[in-house]
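Quick one before lunch.
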Amino acid sequence: MDKVRVVGIETTCDETSVGILEFYPKKLREISKIPDFRELSLVILSQDFHSLYGGVVPELASRAHLRNIAPVFKEALKKAGISAQDIDVISVASEPGLPGSLIVGVSFAKALAQALSKKIVMVNHVEAHAISPLIENDFGFPFFSLIVSGGHSSLYLIEGIGKYRLLLKTQDDAAGEAFDKIAKLLRLGYPGGPIIDEMSNGASPLFQFPKVESENFSFSGIKTFCVRTVKRWIGPFPIPEFLASFQKKVIDELIEKSLNKIKSVAGEKREKIIVVAGGVARNSYFRKVASEKEKEEGVKFIFPSMRYCVDNGSMIAFLGGLKYILFGETSPFYRDIRPTGILKAKGGIDHDYDTDKKRNNS
Ligand code: KG4
Ligand code: ZN
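Model of the zinc ion complex:
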């Protein structure tokens, strides 16, 4: 086939999104050698109302997906200038995520595949984040992928599509979750990441945090330190300085641990590429420090543009399309959602995903 049109459906948490990509299987990209493609459309609907509750309410999230999925799909078709019949493959994120939200996306995808007599590919949301920087950039394998979102902070070695090695994982709270909890502690709103990013802009990071002892990514100690500091404080609390210190500690921790781990991975030659994906990759301090570290450490950081940092249908279409074209992978209709999805890596090392995506509001 000269063209393969893939629709990607994303409903794992609080974004309802549909992206449509057109792949050209016979035309390979110069460096990565993956099939070339272009994005025909991407529609992302963020469920902003959760901010009223200080976190994602799973029941409300699934109901909103139910209301929005068909209109979002129709808008994506309209923007792409194609009809549903023009789609060749349906890719859907079936793991990990909130169960009710996953059910909406997967049921919609299955119904679509049945009605149109098309193939379906069910994919892992974290895997889609991990390779998403390849959507906008062309670079070679292997590379490192640091996934930092509301449910994950993990570092992978990506040896090829489907070949992954987990190097560092979430010990307790994920990076985005830590941002959300500290914003909640100070009653600043939800999601905490963008609020803290903005409020700490220009403020001095005056607070000293204790050292994190864990080998993996661990942020619960930082959270406990924040809670104690806020409770014991007498007088007006210097919120911007405190937030700047917290943000610096979390991001420095992510960068330092990743760089140390990467150095210890044997057999690595040439320039080391570290892609950063997931919601926390939007952080402005993160982007600034990463670019400063590049020369010093002989690495190159690649951040996706903002719309590919949030949960989006194009990254789902991208992963599903590659799996279909490269490996002929399709999923049977009876396959269920996997809220705490385990990734089975082809030719790589299988591993458990460290956490389910739930945001507990503790
Ligand atoms: O990848 P994502 O959209 O959803 C998940 O898969 O979890 O990530 C959402 C997370 C939230 O915890 C949010 O607070 C965080 O990403 N986030 C940020 C920023 N923007 C979003 N964290 C730090 N700085 C930001 N600018
Ligand atoms: Zn995500």
